[in-house]
Amino acid sequence: METLNDGIGGYTSVQWWNARRSADFSGYDCAIINLGINDSLKSISAADTTTALENIINALRMANNGIKIFLATVVPAYSNGTTQFDAVNATIKTVAQTNGCYLIDLSEYSHTRKNTVSEAGHLTAWGYYTLAKDYIAAISYIMHQNRSAFKYVQFIGTDYTYTG
Predict the structure, then answer these.
(1) Is residue 131 a contact partner of residue 73, using CB atoms and an 8 Å limit?
(2) What is residue 33's predicted lDDT score, i.e. its pLDDT?
(3) Choice among 24-28, 35-39, 134-138, 149-153 with the minimum mean pLDDT
């Protein structure tokens, strides 16, 4: 099983979709979409962010039957309590709800709020470690709450597979 980080530094959700729209989205059991920081910084409209995220979600679903999609809000180390980020987080939450995605609400539950996890606009090594732990906790919680939806998902680093 392969894990891919397909982020493009500095891109908004609209720029990411435009750059990757013709990519092969097949071969994935799950996807974590964490876009929105640059949408806030570059004043991308809620409508444009919504369209870009929905295009990504639709492309993933068209290429992968039964894919589990996790949509994450903006990391608080970047966005703690500012209106521009609050607006993007509200958009992300709405997109997750209306498109049947699992929400990873980093804006509410992440431990990346402290200034020790961020330096010059980016997470430090400790910040990325903290964020990874937050993702594990959030996804574990979501899976626990939705056990039947994940019964056919194989986990990286195990020999477990579903045999019917």
Answers:
(1) no
(2) 96
(3) 149-153
Looking only at the bridges linking them, the beta strands covering 30-33 and 68-72 are parallel
Best CA proximity match to 33, nearest among 120, 124, 99, 111: 99
Structure confidence at residue 154 (pLDDT) = 62
Q: Which residue has the tokens 């990519």?
A: 23
Question: Contact at 8 Å (CB) between 21 and 8?
Answer: no
- 143 backbone dihedrals φ, ψ, rounded to 5°: -65, -40
Encode 127-162 in three state secondary structure: HHHHHHHHHHHHHHHHHHHCHHHHCCCCCCCCCCCC
Q: Determine the straight-line distance between the first and last CA of the chain, rounded to whole angstroms.
A: 20
Identify residue 156 by its one-letter amino acid code: I
